[in-house]
Specification:
α6 packs antiparallel against α7 (187-209). The chain is built from 16 helices and three strands. It is mainly α. The protein is elongated, with a radius of gyration of 27 Å. The chain starts with 6 loop residues before the first helix and ends with a helix. The longest helix is centred in the middle third of the chain and has 32 residues, at 146-177. Pfam families: HTH_18. Keywords: DNA-binding, Membrane, Transcription, Transcription regulation, Transmembrane, Transmembrane helix.
Length: 407
């Protein structure tokens, strides 16, 4: 088989091989673990591997010799209209454990289907009917046509933006309904999406400003950066074991502002919360004060904050009301989200234990866990945010104060 192992083709071959391997591993994981997110990521990595294939094979000499040239011409390696929707649906499946494709979602695959039909027409016309290059009279790969590349870039950028919007909604909901939001934020997904959007934006910019950008050899660095990015998400997606517990449905494409929230059965049993991401309903001040006192009593007397997986629904059940009511009181009465409210009580409990010298009897992490934190990093970050000191600095401050008092 023809393959010129030069620097460019060899580097892209490494990423292509790893992309296919991770795609198969994730497909296996998705089937055996019934993990939809892994299945969607498997498809994304497979398409990403195909995305860099024309340049990997092109740099290795496939465009210059038959029958390799025809393989390059008539195989639709770059599915530009498919990559965007796959990114978006992967994001949904990762953040929403109840995600399923609906009939209206198939509209997003129409451009990809249309382009696939177009490639079949090209193949049938040139190879089976005319037996000569008609569509390929210019001997330029249709996958690399300017119109297709630009339309594909716009499509990918659009769906990446929609994925970021979906993530932003998920993040806001997480802080509104659970007290352990930081442990289920999937920050690596947001970082990947932002990096991908940046690379796509730079490609559009260079395409406009640099006429030579359309030349085959000028695009290596773009495809190298893209390869590094999809390799990063393949490792992160395969190794990351975090699972969301707050699936939701968001009709971003249909101007529907209503979001259906519900948690894992372990936390919520079969109850469903209907709410808005932005609380638009207001309740009277007197009623807010009553509910504030009830929540404060639940936190201070019953120490509800000690539950490391405390949710908005748990509080609503204990107070015999609905989660939306509690959410409104927290937002309008305490002027913060649910996650910050609970963590505030946890930090106060930690400070009280430190003042009583508990850090001399057990580890600082043990104190944090006993007060409801389930992550060392979350505890340290929250403590620093609320006290402007690290836990160790706070302990030193207490000990210095005790020395001054004794003297």
């Amino acid at each position: 088989m023809l393959f010129d192992f030069n620097l460019k083709s060899s580097i892209l071959l490494i990423f292509f091989f790893h992309g296919i391997v991770f795609s198969l591993l994730l497909l296996k994981k998705g089937i055996f673990d019934q993990n939809k997110g892994s299945a969607w990521l498997s498809l994304f990595l497979f398409l990403s591997s195909l995305y860099i294939a024309p340049f990997m094979l092109g740099y290795s000499g496939w465009y210059s010799k038959q029958p390799y040239r025809d393989i390059m011409f008539y195989t639709p390696f770059q599915q530009l209209f498919l990559l965007g929707p796959i990114i978006y649906f992967y994001t949904q499946s990762l953040l929403n454990k109840s995600f399923q494709l609906s009939q209206k979602d198939f509209i997003h695959f129409i451009p990809a289907i249309a382009y696939f039909i177009y490639t079949i027409i090209v193949f049938v016309t040139d190879k089976l009917i005319l037996h000569e290059y008609y569509f390929y009279a210019d001997e330029r790969d249709k996958d690399l046509s300017t119109w297709y590349q630009m339309a594909g870039l716009v499509s990918m950028m659009y769906y990446v933006l929609m994925s970021l919007k979906y993530y932003a909604i998920y993040k806001k909901i997480a802080f509104q309904v659970v007290s352990f939001a930081e442990t289920i934020l999937f920050n690596w997904v947001q970082q990947y999406l932002i990096a991908l959007l940046l690379i796509l934006s730079l490609r559009v910019l260079f395409f406009i400003l640099n006429p030579e950008w359309n030349e085959f050899g000028s695009k290596f660095w773009y495809y190298l950066c893209f390869s590094i990015l999809f390799y990063y998400i393949s490792i992160s997606g395969y190794s990351n074991s975090i699972k969301t517990v707050i699936p939701y449905q968001a009709s971003l494409f249909y101007n529907d502002a209503t979001y259906l929230l519900h948690e894992d059965k372990d936390y919520m049993k079969d109850e469903i919360i209907t709410a808005l991401v932005d609380e638009k309903d207001s309740i009277v001040i007197a009623e807010i004060q009553i509910w504030k006192q009830k929540i404060e009593q639940l936190m201070i007397v019953d120490k509800a904050f000690e539950n490391p997986v405390l949710t908005l629904t748990d509080i609503a059940k204990k107070l015999d009301t609905n989660p939306k009511q509690i959410s409104q009181v927290v937002n309008q009465g305490f002027m913060m989200n649910f996650n910050d409210l609970v963590n505030g009580y946890r930090i106060e409990a930690v400070k009280e234990m430190l003042k009583n010298g508990e850090h001399k009897k057990q580890t600082l992490l043990g104190i944090a866990f006993s007060c409801g934190f389930n992550s060392k990093s979350t505890f340290n970050r929250t403590f620093k945010k609320l006290t402007s000191l690290s836990p160790k600095e706070y302990i030193n401050k207490i000990e210095d104060s005790d020395k001054d008092f004794n003297e």
